[in-house]
Amino acid sequence: MEPIILIPIILPFLLGIAGTKILFKGEKIKTFYVISAVTINLLALIGILNIEGAKAFHLLKINPFLDIYFKIDKLGILFALLASILWIFTTFYSLAYMKHEGKEERFFVFFILTLGITLGIAFSGNLFTLYIFYELLTLATFPLVIHAGTKEALYSGRKYLIYSLGGATVALLGMILLFSISNSLNFVEGGVLGTVNIDNPKLLLTIYMVMFLGFGVKAAIVPFHSWLPAAMVAPTPVSSLLHAVAVVKSGIFVLVRVCYFVFGAETIRQIHGNIYTSVLVFITILLGSLLALHQENLKKRLAYSTISQLGYIVLGIILLNENALIGGLLHLVNHAVIKITLFFCVGAIYFMTHKKNINEIKGIGKQMPVTMTCFSIASISLIGIPPTNGFVSKWYLALGGLTENKIIFPIILLLSAFLTAAYLLPIVVTAFFHGEEKKDIKKLDPPIKMLVPIILLTGITIFLGLFPNVLLHYIKSIVENLV
Amino acid sequence: MTYAKNFPLLMILILFISAFIMPLMKKNIFVKGLSLFTMGISMILSIYTWIFITKNGAYFYRVGHWDAPWGIEFKIGMIEAIMAMLFTMVATLILWYSVYSVEKEVKDNKVSFYYLLVNILLGSLLGMVFSNDLFNCFVFIEVTTLASCGIIVVKDKKENIAATLKYLILSSLGSGLVLMGIAFLYDITGNLNMTYIHKEIMNVHAVYKNTLHIAAGLCTVGIGIKSAMFPLHVWLPDAHSSAPASSSAILSALVLKAPILLLIKILYGVFGFEIIREFAILNLILILGTMGMIMGSVLAIKQKEIKRVIAYSSVAQVGYIFFGIGLGNKLGLTMAIFHIIGHAVTKSALFLAAGAMIEKSGKKKLSELKGIGKEMPYTLGLFTIGALSMVGIPILPGFISKWYLSLASIDAGEFMLIGAILMSSLLNALYYFPIIVNGYFGEENLAGKIYKSNEKSIKELLPLMMLIIGMIAIGAGSNKIMDMIRIGLI
Amino acid sequence: MERLLTNYFETGSMILFGIGFVTLLLHNNLIKKIIGMNIMDTAVFLFFIAKGNIIGKEAPIIKGIHKGIEGYINPLPTALMLTGIVVAVSITAFALALTIKIYEKYGTIELDEITRMRGD
After folding, report:
1. Contact B405/A175 with Cβ under 8 angstroms?
2. Interface test with B, best of A105, A127, A135, A169 (most B CBs within 10 A)
3. Can you list the alpha helix ranges (DSSP code H) found in B108-157?
4. Which of B192, B184, B181 is nearest to B218 (CA)?
5. Most Cβ neighbours (<10 Å): which of A246, B195, B284, B434?
6. Which among C21, C30, C48 has CB closest to B183?
7. Which candidate, A216, A228, A133, A140, places its Cα nearest to that of A174?
8. Which of B179, A243, B36, A99 is nearest to C81 (CA)?
9. Burial (Cβ within 10 Å: 0-12, 13-18, ≥19) of residue A52
10. Element holding A344 (H helix, E strand)
């Protein structure tokens, strides 16, 4: 029964490869095929989660290190479900959106492939397997990033590739060094190093920093963030996926795995790894917000906002206490939902009006009332105003900071919240209150396939703000064993 | 099964004798058939030998029934058997590929000579692998040099001739140095049989320390020229890039590797682990290997022709092998031999794929090959898989070599060198990915190209596919291969 | 100095080797390069044969009576070098043939000029 857990990972690969033939058969077949592919995969995933016993599987074990090993645990389930659900929304959205971008078939092949790889990351049972999927993710998303095929796209794509591969290589260095110490890269709650005596804290610290920085590239930690704004040349569904789930969240997810499942909170405290990393995280949070203020292009502004918000999540991870980690994981989910909504709205504006700068969208709130309302709600949530989900996660992050007895953390959070307001609210204000009064305003809300995902996602944002308990309990049960 | 002991000699004889029948044949198709047939027979024989070795262990074979110190002796152990299998298999696949395409690069009346040279080349490479006699190895080196010069110059273009002459002169310089090294060893020990030399050296190494140093140095530099160790690689890019596609594949996959194996035999077999570890020569090899890894890749980035890029990449990859040898521990040596295997398969596939692209499109500059992925999607796809191995994507052999070489350098206490390994793999990405990306993507690049308009037929691509499948199998079965190599080393 | 003079075969071969090596590397003219190569090879042959030679003893060819093992020099290096000479000759022949080809195609046998011609 064990190999069954591979289904959600392998199915997208097969479907993607089969798609190279099927997708070209016509509009209806394509729509049906893509929707059914992602839905079936979600159903398969849920089905597998409900089967008792099927929790771990060695696909190929050659030796202690060359071991492709999958394991389902609570953290993995959280990430897998998040990805699969958001993938479905994106599918509907991009079916409509990609019409004007062209080359839809190629897009959907890689789109489905990437889903499989993301789930592979979620269910990897050791660092080596994770590394394989991490590299594959870069390769599979690369064609999505350079979808337009223009010179600019190719340039940004190259930047993305170099940053990602470079980061992975640096992380590989850490893996090699770690493997030579621990002889195991399996994920164990509390870390594999627990049994190994720390007789060389400096070396361990080096390894930790190397891995943190290496994997941090995908999590867009300053100074390795500049691929993310550059990758905004990609079509909107791609950028939303890159930001919300697939790429940057994979980076974060790997960091969680490295911190809590490979090193273990205790070890990191002993080698003082958290102190060095927290400096980087401060810079990331503030610099991301400050840079976002300057961006005229809507997508770029959101990209820098992502950098700063990712800083929050990483902060939650490296504070190494329970509340902070709860906050971090909550924000992982919440930010995904919020950011994907924001991107969808911006994409809808571009799709309908071909406007992508802030000064061009004066008064657009009246033309696209539904879209802009959703945008406003999501913005409010990202700033962290109740009753939205952004508030819940930031609350826990602040609590975590206070537990550490360092007042600087809540201050940073507050400051950054102001900055968030400063870069998001002007968009809302411009959209609704600027511009000339016109009598007969043409309604420009996007087609139903794009609008429904936006509305549903906004609904989730509010729902998670009002009733955070289901998610909160689940995350608490993950965190209990880790800290 | 004792008749199986004759197989190594039989392989060499079959290849040599069949080679000289070829010019007598009237039709090229028979020549090709004979060459492929004999290579196939050698492959089967080498597989038999390997099975024999796994069952019965290593053995010595007396050529012509003369006893060891006087007669020539073959030593057939696990490593030799694996190498013979690798050489014959790769050569068979390359020959299979060349059957369809050789006329495009070689004139009709020279085809029979081409296959003659290939057969002789393979025979002498196998001889170099098996022989336990230093002077015999030297003769095989010279035969290899002449034959490989022949398969480069056979194209009869301006640049081929210049490249070949460069190769020939530097090569004979190298073999002169090797011969000098052998002379020194003979001077001290009075023997040419490696086993006997090793015994003698164990007795006298304290007395003749300097002479041994000189001998080791001369052999290393001489073989370094043959196998393109970094600062001595100058002949390689010209020679490998101007040769016909199948020749380039044979040259970089096999001809570079046999001398390296000989070097391993000399350093670790003739001198022995204990003695060579105290020599400074290992550090020299380590440093040159590291430099080769980095500089080969850096130089490859600057190249404008696809085959030159791949040729410089060979310099970098050979650097890995020397790196493994220079580390001076068992794991490093194992990985050096493993990398010989992995690189032989990968690089031959890359050269054949590049050759197919050049042949079909008639262009060899990188800038002109943009958008080739649309016209030849399968060929570039196979190229991509090979390139991914070079870059070091897990499971493929390139990654495995890098990982274990890193562990080996930790064992040897050289932490800094891991950085060099990883840096080199990043640099690999820098020159392989643009080829692939520009091949498959980009509006401007793809404009005016018709999907699959230029693709080779599946029949012609089959050997290439088998090389790639073999490469993946080597990666997946790396543990077993490494175990076998370890058995051979003891 | 003393040792160099006693082993004058070896000394001479090393000097020859040096001359050949330098000629091979430094000269631009291909013919001179090939000559250098030959000098180098000859030096190695001399060195190798000197290893088997014992002054005052005969070549191992029996004339009249067999003098016993003590009477003759070691024939093995001589025999080996015969092979070496054959190899060297064939390589020289090949190199000369290539040089002729180069002269036909490029019109010169100076290496720097050829490099320049290929550069542009």
Report:
1. no
2. A169
3. 111-130, 134-153
4. B181
5. A246
6. C48
7. A216
8. B179
9. exposed
10. helix A322-353
Structural domain for C54, as ranges: 2-119
Mapped onto helix, strand or coil, the DSSP state of residue A382 is helix
Residues of chain A with pLDDT under 70: 1, 52-54, 62, 194-198, 243-245, 435-441
pLDDT tens for each residue of B136-171: 999 999 999 999 999 998 888 888 888 898 899 899
Q: What is the DSSP string of C15-77?
A: HHHHHHHHHHHH--BHHHHHHHHHHHHHHHHHHHHHHH--TT-B-S---SS---GGGB--HHH
Q: What are the sequence ranges of the domains in chain A?
A: 282-483
Query: CA-to-CA distance for A163 and A168, rounded, in angstroms?
Result: 9
**A65 inside 8 A of chain B by CB:** yes
pLDDT at C120 over 60: no
Q: What is the largest CA-CA distance in chain B?
A: 73
What's the pTM value of the predicted model, to 2 decimals? 0.89
Whether residues C98 and B164 touch (CB distance < 8 A) is answered with yes
H helices present in B329-453, as ranges: 330-361, 372-375, 377-391, 397-411, 416-440, 443-446
pLDDT tens, residue by residue, A383-440: 888 778 888 888 888 888 888 777 788 888 888 888 889 988 888 888 888 766 665 6
Query: How large is the greatest C-alpha to C-alpha distance in chain C, in angstroms?
Result: 70
DSSP 8-state code for residue B252: I
Q: Which of C42, C92, C101 to mutate to test the interface with B (most CBs of B within 10 A)?
A: C101
The answer to whether the beta carbons of residues A70 and A5 sit under 8 Å apart is yes
Which residue, among B375, B342, B347, B381, has the nearest Cα to B361 in the 3D structure? B375
**In this complex, which of B391, B437, B478 lies closest to A62 when CB atoms are compared?**
B478
ipTM exceeds 0.85: yes
Q: Which two tokens stand for residue A279?
A: 């400096």
> CB of B71 within 8 A of CB of B65?
yes
Which tokens belong to A207?
Answer: 């390894």
Q: Residue C100 carries which side chain, given as an amino acid letter?
A: I
Q: What angle do CA A192, A196, A201 make, to 5 degrees?
A: 100
**CA–CA distance, A447 with A451 (Å, rounded to integer):** 6
CA–CA separation, B161 and C107 (whole Å)? 13
Q: How near does any CA of chain B get to the CA of A161, in Å? A: 9
Residues 6+ apart with CB under 8 A from C116: none
How long a stretch of residues is chain B? Answer: 490
CA distance C34 to chain B (A): 8
Beta carbons of B427 and B294 less than 8 angstroms apart: yes
- Give domain limits for chain B: 280-490
Cα–Cα distance between B257 and B344 in angstroms, integer? 8
- The string of DSSP codes covering B392-424 is T-TTSHHHHHHHHHHHHHHHTT-THHHHHHHHH
